């Protein structure tokens, strides 16, 4: 929490003014009953009418000043809380942008969303409300007690004697309520997740005729939520009247004994009246202190979770040197790579010259994606070196390195923006040759048919488009970047063979100097490459051109046989 409190530094002046406003308000709150006492004793009892107007004006002045202080205090607490929450969210979000893939591998989206959402808001609660009011409650209680003892110690003892009971009841209620809130919040998260999953997976639900089961699941969760809310209401119902009762009893006790002391002329009527007012300044802090403490402890636990994310040390250290990549030649030299403790890639040696195409083929899980991810340092290699332009990739800045590589990932992610904005995302935003790019990525035809063509907003994850259409747009995005290296990770799998052939041909034609790395499962997508790598269990088992690998009659040849069995049987050798 203390680390998070550092955010307040930026708002030192406002924090200072808000504390002054809070102290001013508390001071005036404590002064009020004293003026009432003077009014009763001096004006009504001793009949000093000359000070009546003065005292009334003071009371009006106190009222006005209290309103000003209250407004300033509320406004600034809220302002500071909101600003700090914004700063935390901004920092956390920017910080996460710098983290490597491993960080995201171990976290789920929901968890990270909670840090940026709920946890940052808990801190806002503490700053905008908890800390300020807790301090106010403590100051008010101590000052009011001191004044009561100053006025009459016997009555003061009677007044404070019930306070521990109120404090105990309030704390107990707060603890139970807080647990109940946690349960309700977990339950609400479950309802949200269920609703969200059901809506996103609606096609699957319908395909398996599972609607009834899903509705029952939802109703069940809703019922649990109702029960939890009722439990919370019962806790309120149990403790709240008890707290009220003890508060009112205190007042009655003070009135009885205070009345007796007044009759005995030990205290004045004004003092008795002041006592009744001061008692409320004892009771409200006792009643609310538990709630404020809870807000702060919740914020504390949120701050710890946020700090844990901020303390993450990215495994990939950026090199700030401003080294340019002139030539795109890539060399893998004895590269080893492991996730956790298991080597996924073993002793990889490769050389890809400028303008060449490298194709990677191999069974699922053989390490194809892992291999290409190493080039942009999404993960760090464990042994060996990767060179681009004869320079170890670790010597380039991450920005420079990644600026020179376009990735089309297996999972084609499109933002909820227009077709054009999605394509512009990767680099070139100004003189974008949209028509050409759409044409070359095989997207032109379907984009023209969209309601607003390239201005059409495509839904979350590109909903409303077919798998193949989404793939074409992600390829279009990479074409717009026109970088020295392009990586297509299974990026044409949803295209028919003819379109795949056209798109790959276009990519080849567009930039003759570009290195192309293509991961694919279809022989048709890899057969024209300058080199084909057959990867299995993280090892290069075969490497060569299509013809060399066919002649080798090894694993590549077997895949070829499986995929072209029918053609071969009909002796159509043109596919070779
Ligand atoms: N982030 C990760 N953390 C731990 N293990 C991983 C991670 N990503 C992949 N792996 C494991 O590494 C191995 C290689 O995965 P990789 O994705 O590179 O294979 P692939 O050949 O691209 O597979 P596919 O053809 O299915 O895309 C697999 O056994 C996989 O389970």
Mean pLDDT: 86
SSE order in H/E notation? HHHHHHHHHHEEEHEEHEHHHHEHEHEEHH
Strand order of the largest sheet: 6-7-8-3-9-10
Distance between the termini: 67 Å
Number of helices: 20
- Seen as an oligomer or otherwise, the chain set is single chain
Bound molecules: adenosine-5'-triphosphate
Principal-axes shape call: elongated
Task: Decide which structural class fits the backbone.
Answer: alpha/beta
Main sheet properties: 6 strands, mixed
Q: Residue ranges: pLDDT <50 for 5 or more in a row?
A: none
Which range does the strand content fall in? 5-15%
Helical content, roughly?
55-70%
Q: Please give the number of β-strands.
A: 10
Pfam families: ABC_membrane, ABC_tran
GO molecular function: ABC-type oligopeptide transporter activity; ATP binding; ATP hydrolysis activity
Protein name: ATP-binding cassette subfamily B protein
Transmembrane segments: 12-31, 51-71, 123-149, 155-171, 239-261, 267-284
């Amino acid at each position: 929490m203390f680390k998070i409190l550092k955010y307040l530094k930026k708002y030192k002046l406002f924090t200072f003014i808000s504390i002054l406003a809070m102290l001013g308000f508390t001071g005036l709150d404590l002064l009020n009953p004293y003026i009432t006492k003077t009014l009763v004793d001096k004006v009504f009892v001793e009949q000093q009418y000359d000070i009546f107007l003065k005292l009334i004006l003071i009371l009006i002045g106190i009222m006005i000043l209290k309103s000003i202080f209250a407004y300033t205090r509320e406004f600034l607490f809220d302002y500071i809380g909101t600003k700090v929450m914004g700063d935390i969210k901004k920092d956390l979000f920017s910080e996460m942008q710098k983290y490597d893939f491993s960080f995201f591998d171990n976290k789920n989206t929901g968890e990270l969303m909670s840090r940026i959402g709920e946890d940052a808001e808990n801190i806002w609660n503490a700053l905008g409300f908890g800390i300020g009011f807790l301090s106010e409650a403590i100051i008010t209680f101590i000052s009011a007690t001191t004044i009561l003892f100053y006025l009459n110690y016997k009555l003061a003892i009677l007044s404070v004697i019930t306070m521990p009971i109120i404090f105990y009841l309030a704390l107990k209620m707060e603890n139970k309520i807080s647990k109940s809130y946690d349960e309700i919040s977990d339950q609400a998260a479950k309802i949200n997740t269920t609703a969200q999953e059901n809506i996103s997976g609606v096609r699957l639900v319908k395909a398996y005729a599972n609607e009834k089961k899903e509705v029952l699941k939802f109703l069940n969760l809703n019922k649990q939520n109702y029960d939890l809310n009722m439990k919370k209401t019962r806790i309120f119902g149990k403790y709240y009247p008890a707290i009220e009762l003890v508060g009112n009893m205190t007042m009655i006790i003070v009135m009885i004994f205070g009345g007796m002391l007044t009759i005995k002329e030990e205290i004045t009527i004004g003092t008795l009246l002041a006592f009744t007012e001061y008692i409320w300044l004892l009771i409200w802090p006792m009643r609310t202190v538990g709630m404020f403490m809870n807000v702060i402890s919740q914020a504390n636990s949120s701050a710890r979770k946020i700090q844990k994310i901020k303390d993450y040390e990215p495994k990939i250290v950026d090199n700030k040197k401003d080294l340019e990549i002139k030539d795109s030649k890539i060399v893998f030299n004895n590269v080893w790579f492991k996730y956790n403790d298991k080597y996924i890639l073993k002793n990889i040696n490769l050389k890809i010259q400028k303008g060449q195409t490298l194709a990677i083929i191999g069974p699922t899980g053989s390490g194809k994606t892992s291999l290409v991810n190493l080039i942009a340092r999404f993960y760090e290699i464990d042994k060996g070196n990767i060179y681009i332009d004869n320079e170890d990739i670790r010597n380039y800045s991450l920005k420079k390195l990644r600026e020179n590589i376009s990735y089309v990932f297996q999972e084609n992610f499109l933002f909820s923006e227009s077709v054009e904005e999605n394509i512009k995302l990767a680099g070139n935003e100004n003189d974008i040759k949209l028509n050409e790019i759409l044409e070359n990525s095989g997207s032109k035809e379907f984009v023209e048919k969209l309601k607003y063509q390239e201005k059409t907003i495509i839904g979350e994850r590109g909903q409303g488009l077919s798998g193949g259409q989404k793939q074409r747009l992600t390829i279009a995005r990479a074409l717009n970047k026109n970088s020295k290296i392009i990586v297509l990770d299974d990026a044409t799998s949803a295209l028919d063979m003819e379109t795949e052939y056209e798109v790959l041909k276009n990519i080849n034609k567009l930039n003759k100097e570009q290195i192309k790395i293509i991961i694919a499962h279809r022989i048709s997508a890899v057969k024209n490459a300058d080199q084909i790598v057959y990867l299995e269990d993280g090892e290069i088992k075969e490497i060569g051109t299509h013809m060399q690998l066919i002649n080798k009659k090894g694993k590549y040849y077997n895949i070829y046989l499986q995929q072209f069995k029918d053609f071969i049987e009909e002796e159509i050798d043109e596919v070779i």
